[in-house]
Design goal:
With about 325 residues, the protein is an alpha/beta fold. About 40% of the residues lie in helices and about 15% in strands. The chain has a 5-stranded mixed β-sheet, with helices on both faces. The radius of gyration is 24 Å and the shape is globular.
Length: about 325
């Protein structure tokens, strides 16, 4: 249903109040802790084999959990959960402002970081040295994904401070995402009885195409992961005996992969891996293409390489 002018103005006033509260929170109650988080070298387990011994993930979880508890939100509880030999999670629960609400909103983020890659930073910047330059904060993990817990909690705090209602909120901040989230399923299974009836999942770990507007990711590419092994003989033989008689294993591998993907165009061959894209998604992609123009084409190709020549809308979809 369309809104009348009075309703639109009311919503705009409420949004302005919420934005003002959130801006104040980031400027005066978040940045210092986010700086401290950046200073912790809490690499994901994939990049720090001694992560459990080093304790950096635990330090980051403790820092963020202490900040959450200081926010004094109504109905908030927060704790660090750690199963032996697994990375920790922060589990936050905020009761619904209206007790008649039975739905749960699930919010997700992670606190582990990618490797520092210290040699790739511009002069004056570094992975564990927080710096604000031209209005942007630089430091490993700030946007991927250290901001998530601050954004999630402060958004609910802003609703409470401005008197707006909200449902029950569950926030899970994990610490193994950059390693493929091997520990997350175990925790989710353990927490299932606590989660309740989840009606909306908000993942605070996507991207934005520019800084001019708010971006919402509504769908992501699918992924199939597997290991392919080609075996032609029961045991190893000398190349002089088998060359020309036994097919080359790499040729067989190329042939098998060619059944999945056209090596010239990159098209995925099996029909069962294709779906019809909803018209609404195509319409959204066209709007994105109009907004972004050619800006997303600026990728760091080597000299002889270039972008696949496809329409901008198709580029955004695929």
């Amino acid at each position: 249903a369309s809104l009348n002018l009075v309703e639109e103005k009311k919503i705009l006033r409420e949004m302005e109040r919420v934005f003002a509260v959130i801006q104040d929170k980031w400027d005066n109650h978040i940045l210092d802790t986010l700086f401290d988080y950046i200073r912790i070298p809490n690499q994901s387990p994939e990049y720090d084999e001694d992560w459990n011994k080093n304790g950096h993930l635990d330090d980051a979880a403790k820092l963020l959990n202490e900040w959450v508890l200081k926010q004094s939100l109504k109905g908030l509880t927060s704790q660090i959960i750690k199963i032996q030999d697994r990375t920790p999670i922060i589990f936050i629960e905020i009761e619904a402002s209206n007790q008649s609400s039975s739905d749960t909103i699930f919010m997700y983020g992670h606190l582990d970081k990618q490797p520092p890659m210290a040699e790739d930073w511009a002069e004056g910047l570094g992975p564990y040295t927080p710096v604000i330059r031209d209005g942007k904060l630089y430091g490993r993990g700030a946007s991927d994904d250290g901001y998530s817990v601050f954004s999630a909690v402060s958004s609910i705090g802003a609703l409470q401070e401005t008197g707006l209602a909200h449902g029950r909120i569950i926030i899970v901040i994990e610490a193994s995402e950059e390693s493929g989230s091997p520990d997350l399923p175990t925790y989710i299974e353990q927490l299932l009885p606590t989660l309740g009836s989840v009606s909306l999942i908000i993942c605070l770990d996507s991207g934005c195409a520019n800084y001019d507007q708010l971006w919402l990711t509504t769908s992501l590419r699918g992924l199939i992961d597997g290991n392919l092994k080609v075996s032609l003989l029961k045991e190893g033989i000398h190349s002089g005996d088998g060359s020309g008689l036994v097919a080359d294993s790499f040729r067989v591998l190329r042939n098998v992969l060619g059944r999945l993907e056209d090596e010239t165009t990159g098209e995925i061959r099996p029909p069962f891996l294709h779906v019809d894209i909803p018209p609404s998604r195509l319409a959204q992609a066209r709007v994105c293409a109009e907004v972004l123009g050619q800006s997303v084409r600026h990728l760091p190709f080597k000299q002889s390489m270039n972008l696949t020549l496809i329409p901008m809308t198709t580029f955004i979809i695929y």
